[in-house]
Recover the amino acids of this structure.
């Protein structure tokens, strides 16, 4: 159950990192797209690392790497293009797909981790009783 409570923390962390990447590149610096997208890529890597708190299996976490990087970079890029007054149709469309998919994937990892923890406790209790 504790792993399931970490899901909102991971999602809020991802949203805050994307917002920080946007602020860094477009508000604090002089509309530097490369810095903003670079910070979003690093954020995707860090978010993938935080997904490790939801499950102990390595492959679901590795599979989330392109999803997390893609969700953060497309969101920051689309917001930056909008900030600059440029069209961002393709990036916006990709972000509208990748961000919800990342959220659902994170929720599924949390559920899988919670089920795995419950099964481990059940096996331990069965072993101690018998």
């Amino acid at each position: 159950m504790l792993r399931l409570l970490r899901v909102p923390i991971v999602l809020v962390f991802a949203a805050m990192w994307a917002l920080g990447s946007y602020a860094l590149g477009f508000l604090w610096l002089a509309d530097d797209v490369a810095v903003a997208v670079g910070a979003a890529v690093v954020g995707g890597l860090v978010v993938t690392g935080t997904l490790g708190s939801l499950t102990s299996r390595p492959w679901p976490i590795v599979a989330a790497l392109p999803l997390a990087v893609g969700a953060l970079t497309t969101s920051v890029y689309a917001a930056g293009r909008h900030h600059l007054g440029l069209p961002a149709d393709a990036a916006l469309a990709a972000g509208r797909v990748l961000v919800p998919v990342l959220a659902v994937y994170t929720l599924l990892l949390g559920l899988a981790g919670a089920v795995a923890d419950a099964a481990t406790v059940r096996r331990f209790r069965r072993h101690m009783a018998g």
In short: The chain has four helices and no strands.
